[in-house]
Structures are given as structure tokens and as C-alpha cells.
Amino acid sequence: MPIPADWPTTEAQALAEQERLRPLVQTHDDPGDAVAPDGGRLIAGVDVAYDDEHDLVAAAAVLLDRDTLTVVEQATAVGRIPFPYTPGLLAFRELPAVLDALAALTRTPDTVVCDGYGLAHPRRLGLASHLGVLTGLRTLGVAKTPFTFDHRDPDAPRGSTTPLTDPATGEEVGRALRTRPGVKPVYVSIGHRIGLDTAVRTTLHLARDYRLPETTRHADSLCRRALADALRSGTPAN
């Protein structure tokens, strides 16, 4: 998995790239997706695992059938970590591997669920939005923490939501969503080509039995196994 030759390598380059891509994010449901409402039939989850000591990142893409939540295909990619850890710029560490894992799937997902943020990002271009703009896929972000944004806890019943807002502007950048009664919420944000209501409904459907959506649960497990296998085998990344 070679790193793209033009991939940003400095913070200044990465910030400039975020500013360039940010206006391209589509924050509403794409009219062309009317034939695949609420996420479509094939929904992918993507996630990554790192070993900084060995300079390795492993990404997983797991494709699920929306109706049954069963895995229909999965793929992994392992490579060198292409960017240093910098808050707000994590997409530049993760995306080359994620793009390779998605490219290894033989079917194109209707929606991709990212373990992280989309618009809920200081520059409104988290991993989910960045991935959506680069690929043209419909994407959304489901994060485990609210990052730097404000929210009230949703009511206890499953499906309750409250706005996730930017404290500096008051802008709604996502929603806190209760996927399990009385269990702490997840934080849903638009990625690309999807409205917030649709992103919330899709997440709730995918989180049928657990706090996290099945897409994230499967992708998290797979990328960790891929990283462990790479370390155990001693196979160097490209």
C-alpha cells in the first residue's frame, strides 16, 4: 500500500488541503440516492488500527447487508503511517489505508460509516467528509466522544437525540444519539451526500443490539486482527 506521491506531509499542507476540500462537502441527501433511501442496501464500515512503534497502520472495510446486518464482504490494507499524529488532522494518517481497503472490495457500498467525525470537526472536514469528497461516496461519521463540541445528554430511551453544537458559533454539527436505553450516546455527523436526519436513522438501524453500529464493530475487530497478523508475520508494509 504505497502512500500517494502527492499526499500532504506537513501540517501546513494538510490544513491547506482541508480548506480546499471543505467547500465540496454536500450536507444534504443527494436526490440521486432516492432509489437507495436511508443508507441503501450495502453499507460499509471502515476503521483503522496503528502500531506507531513499527510505523504501521491497518485499515478494514466491511460491507454489510442493511436488512440482515450480515457481513457480505470484507477487505484490509496495511501500510506505513503517512502522517504524524496531529489533532484535527487524523484523516491524513488514516485515509490512504482506508482508500486501499475500500478499493479491494468487489462491490461499491451505498453508504460508508466511519469511526470518527464528519462535519463535527474544527474545519468541518473530519475523516467521513474527507473520504466522501475524495471518493464521491455517501458517508457519515459515528464517533464515541463529542470531541470539542457541546451537547446535552439525550433522554434515556433508545432513539433520543440532542444537538451537537460548536460552542464558538452555536452551529449544529451533529447529534448525540442514544442507541441503547440508558447507555452513553454516540455522536453522529454528516460526512458527504447525506442529511443529518438520514445519518441518524441509518446509525440507529445499524446499532440494533449494541451501542456502536455493526459496521464499526466489525471493522474495528478486522483492522485489529490485520495489524496483529502483520506484526506477527513480520511482513513489511510497502
Q: Which strand order do you get reading across the main beta sheet? A: 3-2-1-4-5-8-7-6
Work out the helicity level: 25-40%
Q: Over all CA atoms, what is the radius of gyration?
A: 17 Å
For the residues shown, what is the average pLDDT?
Answer: 93
Low-pLDDT segments: none
Tell me about the biggest sheet?
8 strands, mixed
Oligomer state of the chains in this structure: single chain
Q: Structural class of the helices, strands and pairings?
A: alpha+beta
Number of strands: 8
Supply the number of helical segments: 5
What order do the SSEs take from the amino end to the carboxyl end, as H and E? HEEEHEHEEEEHH
User: What distance lies between the first and last C-alpha atoms, to the nearest angstrom?
Assistant: 5 Å
Q: Sum up the overall morphology in one term.
A: globular
**Proportion of residues in β-strands:** 15-25%
Offer a concise description of the structure.
This protein is an alpha+beta fold and 238 residues long.
Written description of the protein model:
The chain is α+β, with helices and mostly antiparallel strands and 238 residues long. 27% of the residues lie in helices and 24% in strands. It is built from five helices and eight strands, in the order αβββαβαββββαα. It has helices at 11-21, 91-103, 127-135, 196-206, 214-233; strands at residues 42-51, 56-65, 71-80, 111-114, 139-143, 161-165, 172-177, 186-192. Strands 3-2-1-4-5-8-7-6 form an eight-stranded mixed sheet, with helices on both faces. Helix 2 packs across helix 3 (127-135). The radius of gyration is 17 Å and the shape is globular. The mean pLDDT is 93.
